[in-house]
C-alpha cells in the first residue's frame, strides 16, 4: 500500500479558512477510530516531544473532548473540542477552543470550527479538513503559534502509529 504522506495546508486568508489534506496508508475504519477515540488520539495528536492527555471525551453530537498537550517540562496547554455533527465513518465537525483544565474557554485565544471528512481511496484513507475562523486576525494568530508545523508533525505521528500497528501486528489497539 502506498500513499501520499505529504500534508497539504492551503491558507485562504480572504475566507478565513485553512484547508488540510492528508492521506494515510490505513483503512478508513482505523483512521476514523484514530480520530475519534481518546486512547488513540493520545498516541498521536501532540507534536513530539509533547504528549496529548485526555481528561474526558464524549464523542457524540453535543459532547466534547477535554485534553491537554503536555511538554517535556510539564507545561500543560488545555483545549476542548465541542462536537457538533457526526456522520460515522464519514465526517464530524467540532469547535476547538483553548481552555483551562476544567474546560472553561480562554477568551484570549481564538476558537476554530473544524470540519473533518474521511474517504476511502485505493491507497488507504484521505482526510480533508477545513478549519474556519471568525476573522483573519484569529487565523493569523493560530498560524503564528505554529499550527502548520505542529499539526504536520502530529499527522506524521499518526503515520508512525499505523506503521507500527501494521508491522508489529498490534492492530488490535485500533480494532
TrEMBL record:
Annotated Activator of Hsp90 ATPase homologue 1/2-like C-terminal domain residues: 26-162
CDD domains, per the entry: SRPBCC_CalC_Aha1-like
Alphabetized InterPro entries for the sequence: ASHA1/2-like_C, START-like_dom_sf
Q: Which family does it belong to?
A: Belongs to the AHA1 family.
Name of the protein this chain belongs to: ATPase
